[in-house]
Amino acid sequence: MPAPKRFRNVSRTGPVQVGTSYDGRGREKHTAACTAPRCGFSADYDSRAAAELAARTHRCPVR
Ligand SMILES: [Zn+2]
Question: 24 CA to middle of ligand 1, Å?
C-alpha cells in the first residue's frame, strides 16, 4: 500500500496510481503503486515517464 506520504500530481492508469513526492533529501521521486487488493506492487522511479511506463505495463499477479 502507498506509504502515508504527501503525493502530488497523482494520476491513475488502470489500477496503478502514480504520484510525485520528495524523498528525504528534497529530490523528486516518482512512485507507481498498484491499488488492487493483494497485489502490493509499488516502486520508485527517478522520472515521471518511467513511473508512468511502469504503470501502463504493470500486470497484476492476482486477479
Ligand atoms: Zn497490480
Answer: 26
